[in-house]
Design a protein that fits this description.
The protein is mainly β. The protein contains three helices and 18 strands.
């Protein structure tokens, strides 16, 4: 009887201790984070484009760049309409959510689709070590990491962007950067920094691009090292990145012979940036292997790929306005895995333009493009288009 009483009192006291501990923890939590919603911020941007100025060849197009460029396009279009909700909702938890209301699904345009939806978990008090979970940008390249609201050229280069369509995927990524480097990255934002994706990154992701499920139960693995270095009044940023995995073809013509469980998908790249203070250079190149349409055998094969770009710019502040003239030269030879039949490409392109900020929250970009694009698949096996056009974009950013 005595033993039973002791057991009862032990269980009772243990229960009371648990309740008190839980209540105390919840009280502290409520005191610290009862106003987490005050740390949530709202922003976004809208881009309106016209691609048809002095267009010399309406068959010259780029599906991945802008679906309204070419014969199927025409008129004004909403290129992006994005809103973002973000904030440090507790000392070690950061959240970010960004939908885009200017996507196309089938014949419908201006449809909402998730771009980013992730949270960061800080592993130390200064959040120098972070784990990112959700759909976010895959840390590969410099220009791919840049926000489309900040990038000088209207579209990302083919050589890098062909690796990760929409630059995003579902994954888990580890990021590290010291407090000093994160502070420097923030200071470089007006000079077209790529954003705080750490000095070192390592992660896994599904590998089928954003808003597509995994199809082969195999993760892609990616790593990136990119460090801004102050050299006198200038800042340079060298970097390297690589990824590997298997990609399952998303769409193909029924007549083609394809490997159903996926193709080798590997890349290695290098980057160099001299921030425009006032003269700037941004250059990247990558090599690798991936799927590509092969007309001779009417199949999709693993082939080599290579390409890169260099962008020259000059930062001018005058009359309380900002002008950034720029020129980008790019080249790419390889396939685009996410397009029909892993369409085969050879791209040679020169773009010259200017980004003008006449007032806060508004910018205007005018770009003249001269291009030679070969893009071939089963439905269009002989297709090499040359031409030029001028493109105009107005952007509201808040």
């Amino acid at each position: 009887m005595h033993s039973k009483d002791n057991s009862f009192y032990f269980r009772f006291h243990f229960f009371v201790l648990l309740v008190l501990t839980s209540a105390f923890s919840q009280t502290l939590s409520a005191q610290d984070h009862d106003k987490w919603y005050e740390n949530i911020h709202f922003g976004g941007y809208m881009q309106v484009r016209y691609n048809g100025v002095y267009q010399t060849n309406d068959k010259l197009e780029c599906e991945q760049c802008d679906e309204f460029w070419g014969a199927e396009g025409g008129g004004l279009s909403l290129r992006r309409l994005r809103f973002k909700f973000y904030g440090q909702i507790s000392p070690r938890i950061y959240m970010y959510f960004q939908p885009d209301f200017a996507k196309s699904v089938g014949e419908s345009i201006n449809v909402a689709r998730v771009k980013d939806a992730y949270f960061d978990i800080g592993l130390d008090d200064d959040n120098e070590f972070r784990i990112r979970i959700g759909q976010s940008k895959v840390p590969y390249g410099f220009e791919d990491m840049q926000s489309s609201s900040d990038r000088l050229p209207l579209d990302r280069n083919d050589a890098y962007n062909s690796g990760v369509k929409d630059e995003r995927d579902m994954g888990v990524f580890f990021y590290w950067a010291s407090k000093e480097k994160r502070k420097l990255m923030k200071e470089l934002k007006p000079y077209k920094h790529s954003g705080d994706f750490g000095v070192f990154a390592l992660g896994i992701y599904n590998g089928q691009t954003a808003n597509h499920p995994d199809l082969n139960h195999e993760f892609h693995v990616v790593t990136r090292f990119s460090i801004p270095i102050e050299v006198g009044s200038q800042v340079i940023e060298p970097g390297m990145q690589a990824y590997t995995g298997k990609f399952v073809l998303l769409e193909h013509s029924p007549e083609l012979e394809v490997v159903e469980d996926g193709y080798l998908d590997q890349r290695l790249g290098a980057s160099f940036v001299l921030y425009p203070k006032p003269f700037g250079i941004q250059a990247e190149c990558n090599i690798g292997r991936g799927q590509e349409y092969d007309g001779a055998s009417e199949s999709v094969k693993v082939k080599g790929l290579k390409g890169g770009y260099v962008t020259f710019s000059y930062f001018i502040e005058k009359w309380n306005q900002t002008f950034i003239p720029f020129t980008r030269l790019q080249y790419y030879d390889g396939g685009k895995k996410h397009e029909l039949d892993a369409r085969s490409y050879t791209v040679k392109e020169c773009e010259t333009g200017v980004e003008w900020h006449p007032m806060d929250h508004f910018e205007l970009v005018v770009v003249h493009t001269i291009a030679d694009r070969r893009f071939e698949n089963h439905l269009n096996p002989l297709n090499d288009q040359k031409g030029s056009l001028m493109r105009v974009q107005a952007q509201l950013k808040f």
